[in-house]
Amino acid sequence: PSGTAAVNVRAQTLHSFFGLGGQNNKGIDKCKSQMRTTIKERLRNVDTLVIDEISMVSYEMFDRMDQMSRATRGDDIPFGGMQLIAFGDFCQLPPVKPQEHCYRCGRERQKITL
Fold first, then answer.
1. Residue 78: exposure state from Cβ atoms within 10 A (0-12, 13-18, ≥19)
2. Which residues neighbour 11 within 8 Å (Cβ) at sequence distance 6 or greater?
3. How confident is the model at residue 88 (pLDDT cuts 50, 70, 90)?
4. Residue 28, Cα to own-chain centre: how many angstroms?
């Protein structure tokens, strides 16, 4: 997930790989419909996706990657059949905070205070 770690191993961030940039306020349908051709080709041609520091990936980002992969690869099994290898230490880092916008529709979330 972090740019520095990705550069050190000649890889890229998940946001870059899936063509999301820093935009976390787009709904999943918009992400799928606005995917660039190069991203679609990349997702179709990848056999194995390796993710390091998986504890830094929010459940929303994980689901967004799954939905985009399924749509692009034309297969409704998890990640469109792409093999996923994840590394990380769940005791090392705190959980990722939820996004400020709903990943399904893109609307801003209501803040809940206790």
1. exposed
2. 50
3. confident
4. 11
Q: What is the pLDDT of residues 20-52, one digit of tens each?
A: 876 666 777 887 888 899 999 999 999 999 998
Whose tokens are 């399924």? That residue is 70
Burial label, 38 (beta-carbon count in 10 A; 0-12, 13-18, 19+): exposed
Give dist(CA 39, CA 21) in Å, integer: 12
Nearest-angstrom CA–CA distance, 15 and 22: 7
Cα dist from 88 to 72, 93, 106, whole Å: 27, 9, 29
Whole-model pTM: value is: 0.73
